[in-house]
Amino acid sequence: MILSRHNILSLSHTDQNLSLILQLCALIAAAVVLLILVFLLSESWPVLQHVSVWRFFSDDAWHPAQDLYNITPMLSATLLSTLGALLLSTPLGIASALFTRYYAPPALAAWYRRLIELLAGIPSVVYGLWGLTTLAPLVGQLHPPGVSLLTAILVLALMILPTIALTVDSALRAVPVAYHHSAAALGLSRWAIIKNIILPAAHSGITSSVMLAAGRAIGETMAVLMVAGNVVQHPHSLFASVRTLTANIALEMSYAMGDHRAALFVAGLALMLMVLLLVSSAELFKRRSLCLQIH
């Protein structure tokens, strides 16, 4: 039977309806992001009217009651804790996905995957309690006080590890089976196949998993609030107590008023812009990688 041009190229009535629904959902998602940005900007505007953006990076300290609005200590703590957690969890997450996909026996792989899924479902406050009661005393034995940037990095790394492991596992599963068979037919070893065929083919999904984990680490509040020490200062070492932007908002929003409250929304706006910059960087990276593959 020869299929007609209409059957091949034309969308059915059901497909057209589904396309409209998906477009509407995409527009709603984009509108939500824009509304959040507008809300943050409107709540920040009272203080931005008479306090320049530069002062949020150049004032002597963070004391809104004294008209001092420097958020750079908390910004640096947020970035360093996120970067440290990614440096620890990314190789572990990729290794976990490779283990369950290519090396572990099926029964062990299924059990291990369920364990990772269980870690992903644990509430952040439970991680914070564990970090405060168990991990912080261990770090304190190396260098007091224990509640520090290092403790926050370790807790965040454990929290985002399941996100990376499960997302990378899905990316590896999406690699066509023909790639495996073709490489095996050439006599390549298992590691050679993974290194030269599988990982390059799944790099887009791996990049997305790292960006997703980074977004969660940047926005994490409760666990970091409990284990970082909550001292507004630039971290001079891994053992220094710090306060992240999210922890600062959670701690001070309940009693903040006037310009102080608006300044906290400026911090929230900075977090939102960081996440948007992260997503944009990931998209540019994927496009550049695609262009290099084409050429």
Question: Roughly how many Å apart are the termini?
Answer: 39 Å
Mean of all residue-level pLDDT scores: 89
Q: What is the CATH C-level name of the largest domain?
A: Mainly Alpha
Order of helices and strands: HHHEEHHHHHHHHHH
CATH architecture of the largest domain: Orthogonal Bundle
Helix-strand category: mainly alpha
Number of strands: 2
**CATH superfamily of the largest domain, please?**
MetI-like
Instruction: Report the uncertain regions.
Output: none
Note down, in words, how this protein is organized.
Helix 4 packs antiparallel against helix 5, helix 4 runs parallel beside helix 7 and helix 7 packs antiparallel against helix 10. This protein has 13 helices and two strands; from the N terminus they run αααββαααααααααα. A two-stranded antiparallel sheet has the order 1-2. The two termini are 39 Å apart. It is mainly α and 295 residues long. It has two domains: 41 residues; 238 residues, MetI-like (MetI-like fold), CATH 1.10.3720.10.
Quick summary:
By secondary structure, this protein is mainly α.
Keywords:
MetI-like fold, 295 residues, mainly alpha, 13 helices, 76% helix, globular
Please outline the helices and strands.
Layout (H helix, E strand, L loop, with lengths): L4 H5 L3 H36 L6 H4 L3 E2 L4 E2 L2 H32 L2 H16 L2 H19 L6 H25 L3 H9 L4 H12 L1 H17 L2 H6 L17 H8 L6 H36 L1
Antiparallel strand pairs: 1-2
Helix pairs in contact: 2-13, 4-5, 4-7, 4-10, 5-7, 6-7, 7-10, 8-9, 10-13, 12-13
